[in-house]
Design a protein that fits this description.
- The complex is a heterodimer of chains A (388) and B (314).
- Chain A has 12 helices and 16 strands.
- Chain A is an alpha/beta fold and 388 residues long.
- Chain A has 2 domains: 6-248, Thiamin diphosphate (ThDP)-binding fold, Pyr/PP domains (Rossmann fold, 3-Layer(aba) Sandwich), CATH 3.40.50; 255-383, Rossmann fold (3-Layer(aba) Sandwich).
- In chain A, the strands form 3 sheets. Chain A has a 7-stranded mixed β-sheet with strand order 3-2-4-5-7-6-13, sandwiched between helices.
- Chain B contains 13 helices and 8 strands.
- Chain B is an alpha/beta fold and 314 residues long.
- In chain B, helix 3 links the parallel strand 1 (42-46) and strand 2.
- The chains are: A alpha/beta (388), B alpha/beta (314).
- Chains A and B meet through strand 3, helix 3, helix 4 and strand 9 of A and strand 1, strand 2, helix 4 and helix 6 of B.
- Strand 9 (209-210) of chain A pairs parallel with strand 2 of chain B.
Chain lengths: 388, 314
């Protein structure tokens, strides 16, 4: 059978997406496990396979700054980072959304220091979740690639105009080689279309002041506009998913459900764990247990209404966070609890913190998330796979 | 090459009146002179600071040209981003005009928090001009000391006390540090000599790579001086050799204007006590107990002036 599938790791898949998009500017700083993205893209630049102006900065702070200024100037702009690199950008993340610069960034999710650890968890993304960035997670390499392409359309939409993070689990997706179906480059180019910047700085005949000083008389309203844009992004994302589905046959939803129709117990997770959880659900279904798993593909804006529908009337809901929020409940759990408040009857919900610093979470261990709930052994907050 | 007042009077007004800078602030004067040095379209990046907040209080703006502020420590990276976008779009034929990119930062945003971003942008070779508006302290936040603050200056974080005589240690010599990045053009300027300033900025705008202009900018609030004395103080900084006027063009150091005349023996080098005596921030140094500091500071100025003259002879 004829096909053009390739074997590729997540980082190379992102670099391939960028090559096909051929953005105007890419500014980045290398950090594990994102490095392969910028290394491969540097190859494309060095070999003249893209027209991109590649700016290899002296820090992540400057990388994000260059991206913001480039996008504000009117260029289609991409970048990538991970972990403490994202933390180093943090000051500028809010500037990117506040200035409404629709750049896109791949985040190779990695634990935050200390202790220093290069492996996957969602500490970096979660610490950035309130900065006004759109955020989308990937289950596998294919989705990481697809997200990198779709993100442009969502971010650049006239009703959105916000930056977007496309998250892919460090090493688990960035370095693992999977089978993937890339799009033809001309299809990618057609899908992303011509970039139409709003009030670009380089239009010197129509000069604009960007990043003016706001007092208490305007700041609130300007921040509220970001919330409005986030709200609009829900429908925009649905439309982009639909159009992408028609093009590729890969149909995505704001909230993905697996074996949930008759499930009494569901788990909710983000990223590659969704795949492991599907295998876990298959195993338990084989044992006659009515379980299912849910992934909010879009994490910001949070599709609360869809989440509420997905957890309605379940006997138990387990929320898996690959992050800990010391002193309170972890963020995805809090988001799911908040989403449930619109329901007439709020299901029992349990928090599971797992996989910190790359601690492996396999089917046997993940099975206990369901069996604990079924057996009434689940606590309010559970730490999965911690050594005794 | 030398600009005439007649031709300068015809240049477009890029920074308009109505901004909220203090009376006697050197920054507005310097920026207007800088922007007179090119007739090309410019895009401006501005670090957080007095100049940023005073010219863009929403919903007003004093700017007739594209302008962006992103944060404090990254004016150079911001300018680099606009320049990178320009390179990309120019190459694709989407932009046809020959444009220039300028960054303005205060001394805090340049010597201190913005130093890494500046160094990175210079090393990468963006075609942009970085202008430091050096008033020798963090004036916007209330006169705190910076790496550009001179020894003995009383600031709110280096106050002149009974045991510590204000700022300890000498200012960082940023112009030389920048020049050592081997960029095509770096210079020190003062707003009292507009002809020298504009000539240097013309060079800075035309080199094919990064250029750096360091401008001394008297601050009546921070220096505790009369707003009417701003231009005289800028001149005094030059004539005491606290702020020599020079340029480094493709590695070649050259004294200019008053500084060249002092070196040639045609103009008297004024003593540092005149500089200290003219400003409230140094008035405590006139006390007997700090005499040694004043003498050491004079010796330091003399040594740096000798070094600069030697560099110019290389």
């Amino acid at each position: 059978m004829l096909h053009n599938d390739i074997a590729v790791n997540g980082d190379n898949a992102i670099a391939l997406a960028w090559k096909q998009i051929d953005p105007d500017v890419c500014a980045a700083y290398p950090i594990t496990p994102q490095t392969i993205i910028v290394e491969r893209f540097s190859d494309y630049v060095a070999d003249g396979e893209v027209n991109t102006e590649f700016v290899c900065t002296e820090s992540e702070h400057s990388a994000m700054t260059v991206c913001i200024a480039s996008a504000a100037a009117g260029a289609r702009t991409v970048t990538a980072t991970a972990s403490v690199g994202l933390a180093y950008m943090w000051e500028m993340l809010g500037v990117a959304s506040g200035l409404r610069t629709p750049l896109t960034m791949a985040v190779a999710n990695r634990a935050l220091s200390a202790p220093i650890n290069i492996h996957c968890d969602h500490g970096d993304a979660m610490a950035s979740r309130d900065t006004g960035w759109l955020m989308i997670f990937a289950e596998n390499v294919q989705e990481a690639y697809d997200n990198a392409i779709m993100a442009l359309r969502i971010a650049e939409h006239k009703d959105v105009q916000l930056p977007m993070m496309t998250c892919l689990d460090g090493f688990i997706l960035t370095h693992a080689i999977e089978r993937m179906t890339p799009l033809d480059t001309n299809k990618v180019k057609k899908f992303v279309g011509e970039h139409r910047p709003v009030h670009p700085l380089l239009d010197h005949k129509n000069p604009v002041t960007q990043g003016a000083m706001d007092g208490h008389d305007f700041y609130f309203e300007h921040r509220l506009q970001i919330a409005d844009a986030m709200e609009a992004a829900l429908d925009v994302t649905k439309d982009v998913f639909k159009e992408f589905g028609k093009l590729t046959g890969r149909r995505y939803n704001l909230v993905e459900r697996y074996m949930c129709d008759d499930a009494d117990y569901v788990a909710i997770c983000l990223g590659s764990t969704f795949g492991t959880m599907k295998a876990t659900v298959d195993k338990l279904r084989g044992e006659g247990k009515k379980v299912g798993v849910i992934m909010p593909r879009l994490f910001r804006p949070l599709p609360s209404a869809e989440i509420a529908k997905a957890i309605d009337k379940r006997k138990g809901v387990a929320v898996l966070d690959k992050f800990m929020s010391p002193g309170t409940y972890p963020p995805l759990f809090e988001d799911i609890v908040s989403s449930s408040l619109s329901l007439k009857e709020i299901p029992k919900m349990y928090s599971y913190v797992y996989g910190l610093g790359g601690r492996d979470a396999k089917v046997d261990e993940l099975s206990t998330v369901f069996t604990d709930m079924i057996d009434g052994k689940a606590k309010k907050v559970n730490y999965l796979g911690v050594k005794k | 090459m030398s600009p005439s007042l007649k031709e300068l009077s015809r240049t477009p007004t890029r920074l308009t009146s109505g901004h909220r800078l203090c009376a006697g602030c050197g920054e507005g004067i310097i920026v207007r002179q800088v922007l007179m040095a090119t007739d090309k379209p410019v895009v401006i990046s501005n670090a957080t600071g007095c100049f940023e907040v005073s010219t863009t209080i929403y919903p007003y703006t004093a700017w007739n040209v594209p302008w962006i502020h992103t944060a404090f420590g990254n004016a150079a990276a911001t300018a680099a981003g606009t320049e990178a976008a320009y390179r990309a779009l120019y190459r694709q034929g989407k932009i046809k005009d020959d444009m220039r990119f300028v960054a303005f930062g205060g001394d805090g945003g340049t010597y201190d928090i913005g130093f890494q971003a500046l160094s990175g942008a210079l090393e990468r070779g963006h075609r942009m001009m970085y202008v430091c508006l050096n008033n020798e302290a963090y004036m916007n936040t209330g006169i705190q000391r910076s790496g550009a603050t001179g020894i003995g200056a009383s600031t709110t974080t280096s106050p002149a006390g009974s045991v510590i005589p204000g700022k300890i240690g000498y200012a960082k010599d940023l112009t030389m540090i920048v020049a050592e990045h081997n960029i095509p053009y770096a210079a020190q300027v003062s707003p009292h000599n507009w002809r020298d300033l504009i000539q240097k900025c013309r060079k800075g705008f035309e080199v094919n790579g990064p250029s750096f202009i360091n401008a001394i900018s008297p601050c009546p609030r921070g220096w505790r001086t009369d707003p009417a004395d701003t231009i005289d103080l800028a001149q005094l900084a030059v004539e005491t050799c606290v702020w020599p006027l020079y340029e480094v063009e493709n590695g070649k150091y050259r004294l200019t204007a008053e500084s060249a005349r002092i070196a040639d023996g045609k103009l008297e080098k004024r003593p540092l006590t005149e500089w200290f005596g003219a400003q409230g921030r140094f008035k405590h140094l006139m006390k007997e107990k700090w005499m040694e500091l004043v003498e050491n500071a004079q010796a330091d100025i003399d040594a740096k002036w000798e070094k600069l003259q030697k560099l110019c002879k290389l």
